[in-house]
Amino acid sequence: MAKRKVPSINGSSSADIAFMLLIFFLVTSSMGSDKGLPRQLPPAVPPDQDVSIDIKKRNMLRVLVNTAGDIICNGEEVTLVQLKNKVKEFVLNENNDPDLPELEEIDIPLIGKVAVTKYHVVSLTNVVDTKYHDYIAVQNEIARAYRELRDDYAMRKWGKKMEELSQEQQEALIDLYPQKISEANPKEYGKK
């Protein structure tokens, strides 16, 4: 009796099945990324409205990040920690220094009348070739300065950090120390 040849499994559709499984898992799996900087953009300005704003020199802290990752703050090279401290000093202006932002007394709910640097702005500029890592590190330090100011005040006033406070208390702290960061377009230095 002759042996019959055992038929092989048809593998022509195996690649199709594998591809469909791959697509299924790519579509159904979540690839969340918690990286980034949460920012609230200003409202859109109507096209017929002038958007230029005059800011007094004393009310602006100029921060530049260059190609080498150096941080220049108002013409002086600083480290990340020094930058954070300079931002805090700039926003507070505790001694009403004429070289720091103007103080104006305002009434904030839950806090009362307090002198704040209402018109301060931290202007962040970078060179086109600035490394993303360096730029984000500077952004984080500026944001950390504001967080520390708010946390310090919250601890003095209510004995808790800002994140532990009620929504109304958090809003009062944001009114006390509003995060005002202006990001200028990257510049190309040394090119004609």
UniProtKB/TrEMBL annotation:
UniProt entry keywords in alphabetical sequence: Cell membrane, Membrane, Protein transport, Transmembrane, Transmembrane helix, Transport
RNA-binding as UniProt keyword: no
Name of a matching Pfam family: ExbD
Similarity section: Belongs to the ExbD/TolR family.
Organism expressing this protein natively: Porphyromonas cangingivalis
GO aspect biological process, one term: protein transport
Repressor recorded as keyword: no
Highest classification ranks of the organism: Bacteria, Pseudomonadati, Bacteroidota, Bacteroidia, Bacteroidales
Protein name listed in UniProt: Biopolymer transport protein ExbD/TolR
Subcellular location(s) per record: Cell membrane
Record InterPro entries: ExbD (IPR003400)
